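job 3f2a | input accepted
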Amino acid sequence: MDIKTATAIRRLRLVSAPEAVSFLLLLVCSVLKRTTDFNAVPVMGMVHGVLFILYVLFWADAWNRTKWGPKTAALYFVLSVLPTGGFFAERKLRRESEDAVIASRARQEQQGAVKA
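job 3f2a | predicted structure (116 res):
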C-alpha cells in the first residue's frame, strides 16, 4: 500500500466517528425540538451535512485508491447513513489499515532478504 492509499483510508477513518456523533446529536436535537423550546436542528443539521459530505468525498477517494470491491465499497457507504454506522466503519478501517501496514512491512523485509 502506498502512502496516498494509506492517507485516504486514514482520512475516511478520522471523519467516520465524528460523522456518526453528529448524526446522533442531530437525532437528539430533533427530539428536543419537538418536545421542548430548544431548537438546535439548523446548526446540527449543517454540521452533520458538512461531515457527511466529507465522509462521502473521502469514501470515494478511498474506494478509488484501495480498489475495494463493490460489496466493500457499498458496506462503507451504507455505514455512513446508519446512525451508529460510522463507529463500525472506523473500527473496520482501523483494522484494514493495520493489516496493510503489517503486509507492507513484511514485503519490505522480504525485499531486503532477497537483496542480501
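job 3f2a | The first helix runs from residue 3 to 35.
job 3f2a | closed
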